[in-house]
Amino acid sequence: MGCVYSRACIGEICTPRDARIRIKEPQQTTSRTTNEIAVFSPASSSSDGPDAETRDQISQLNPELGITRLSRVSSQFLPPEGSRTVKVPSAKYELRYSFLSQRGYYPDALDKANQDSFCIHTPFGTSQDDHFFGVFDGHGEFGAQCSQFVKRKLCENLLRNNKFHEDAVDACHSSYLTTNSQLHADVLDDSMSGTTAVTVLVRGRTIYVANSGDSRAVLAERRGKEIVAVDLSIDQTPFREDELERVKLSGARVLTLDQIEGLKNPDVQCWGTEEGDDGDPPRLWVPNGMYPGTAFTRSIGDSIAETIGVVANPEIVVWELTNDHPFFVLASDGVFEFLSSQAVVDMVAKYKDPRDACAAIVAESYRLWLQYETRTDDITVIVVHINGLKNVETGLTSPTPGHTVSLLGVRENGRNRIIFTIYFI
Description:
Blueprint: H1 28-34, H2 52-58, H3 63-72, E1 84-88, E2 93-102, E3 116-121, E4 130-139, H4 143-160, H5 168-185, E5 194-203, E6 206-212, E7 216-223, E8 226-231, H6 241-249, E9 253-255, H7 257-260, E10 283-285, E11 292-294, E12 300-301, H8 303-306, E13 315-320, E14 327-331, H9 333-336, H10 341-349, H11 354-372, E15 379-387, E16 404-405, E17 411-412, E18 415-416, E19 422-423
Antiparallel strand pairs: 1-2, 2-15, 3-4, 4-5, 5-6, 5-12, 6-13, 7-8, 7-14, 9-10, 10-11, 14-15, 16-19, 17-18
Helix pairs in contact: 3-4, 4-5, 10-11
């Protein structure tokens, strides 16, 4: 529930006075972006058909042609069979994926656009071994446009980065920051709008997971007869002690809505854990105002929230896939508001076709939202099956249950270091 409060959300009381005068007036380009919001697009001769494979091979000749291809397939659609299979030649395995995005139900704004977006590029760039998946959860008045802008620019920036082939971690980190700067400079008003982003770059046997915000990537891992959820990203919210302290040092007031409205003591921390959230999570506020009210501590955009510590810097995890990893999932927080990572993995494990798994996850998420709330969030999920991967000697050891594991590669601010540790249960 990473919504930024605005007049369209809960009333003028939480809208900053300065934000009511748009910092950047929307131009015609903004309305053009709005037309791209639909997640599913009909097949067209420019993006599918008998010559599509030939055109995709041509697009591998140089990065600029690859970027041209990105714009052509930026709106994904389901093939007739409902899922698609692509090969990873160097490791001799296949990825079979599907996706689904469901617009939220808002009783007071029935025509509210789906602010989630996603991208799937198979292959990605100049190598048949590279594949890219991303989920972007927009928020604020122009959240839909922001998520569309970021999903397009982030991919372009990553392909153009001169370290993309030799240092994917550095390239991912730089691309997130570059995209954030481009959004600030664009005509889109991102003062109180932006998007979270979680992306997975598959390169041979290795996956690079970059996350800014509270969408999530989860890997399934076989341990004996069980399939266990391994979080490849950790939600960046004030529930995390490290993130809480970081934004406080930048001047943020961290209070729940009850605290900001005077219903609870603002000097006493009244929230528990993210899993036990009672629907009133801690949010970030400027020192002398009732805005912006973000429930996350990292995002792309959100120029006002940036002044109190909300940053675009992604946390990046590098993971080596083995045949003990049957699939991974990317999803917006519309899925994880009421479903745990393990619950999502358990659902996916029941279905042979990732399309059916996507449908089940979205349906259950939607049902739970309406059970506990009077509305639903936008809900987006990508499920990727990993088929035919054989183990090889990599020098890596499998994680031992009950122990902490140092991640293979995590970077922030351009430095190689551990940002966080994943605990295996």
